[in-house]
Amino acid sequence: MVLTIFLALTFSFLLIRLLPGDPAERYYGDPRLPIEIKTEIKAAFGLDKPVYMQYFIFLGNAVKGDLGISYTYRRSVVGVVMERMPWTLLLTTVPTVLSMVLGLKIGTYIAFNRLKFFDRFMRSVAFALNSVPTFWLALLMVMGFAFYLPIFPLQGMIDPLAVTMPERFFSVLRHAALPWITIFMVTLPSFAVHVRNLTINILGEDFIITAKAKGLKKAQIRKKHVLRNALGPLFSILTLRVAGLVGGSVLIETIFSWRGMGLLVLEASRGSDYPLLQATVLITIILVIVANFVADILQAVFDPRVRYS
């Protein structure tokens, strides 16, 4: 895990340096500035040094937890990212957890009733939604329920007129409703079909055949045997899904003007804000890697067969 984080840090540093644009140009864009002032500005940002020296300086500071100062916000990039991260987690975690809970019930139900109408219907819906670009679905939601039928706010995270805590709370819920519905619609069918396939594999195990031979009812087999053996892989999928949504939330947050990590990445890339872009990419990568590590541990906890293998 540590080696993967180190390689991710190195490649993200190099790739960001290949982006077009000069991050200090906004400060000396005036052509009347003398060359000496421009040189001083570049030196203040550390951009006058060779790339390899910038890398070693960045690496040394990153080990100490210092990822630099944002050129745009002019304060610690860690502080900026930590302000945006909770909003992205709110946007992605709620619909993903709901889709897991409901998908678990739907998936096990259609597995016990496979090849029937509801099973074929859910698989068709999952295939269709997996083929639909998420940003296109998000745009349809905005046009349908924020523009033509103004049920929900068009964009933003909170109404500026909301002052009290209850007003702010319900304002956030109303603004988050459309992106939640969009993510929920994309994740639920695929998650239910994944649970269905996993459950069918479990139903073919010897201990399930033994349970049926003992005369156990479907509800008992589902609760005591199927769900218990499915929880490990399901928690792994949930952990990785949340981490992946945090990293891939740029389009959703841009469409709904949700000021989270995704929109922050877009702002940093547009403004050639190297420290901020490095921090967002690095923290997202670390989140995915740690989530993968936690998923492995959870799978071993819920499924002892993984530990013995």
Annotated CATH homologous superfamily of the largest domain: MetI-like
The tally of structural domains comes to: 2
The averaged pLDDT comes out at: 81
Termini separation (Å)? 21 Å
Helix content: over 70%
Q: What sort of overall outline do the alpha carbons produce when their principal axes are compared? A: globular
Q: Using the 3D structure, state the CATH architecture of the largest domain.
A: Orthogonal Bundle
Query: Could you give the order of the helices and strands?
Result: HHHHHHHHHHHHH
What is the tally of beta strands? 0
Largest sheet: none
Structure description:
The protein is mainly α and 309 residues long. The chain folds into two domains: 2-63, no CATH class; 85-308, MetI-like fold. Helices cover 75% and strands 0% of the residues. The protein has 13 helices and no strands. It has helices at 2-17, 35-44, 51-63, 77-112, 117-131, 134-148, 165-203, 206-213, 218-247, 250-255, 261-270, 274-302, 304-308. α11 (261-270) runs antiparallel to α12. The longest helix has 39 residues, at 165-203. The radius of gyration is 24 Å and the shape is globular. It starts with a helix and ends with a helix.
Features:
13 helices; MetI-like fold; 0% strand; 75% helix; 309 residues; mainly alpha; 2 domains
Briefly characterize the structure.
By secondary structure, the chain is an all-alpha fold. It has helices at 2-17, 35-44, 51-63, 77-112, 117-131, 134-148, 165-203, 206-213, 218-247, 250-255, 261-270, 274-302, 304-308.
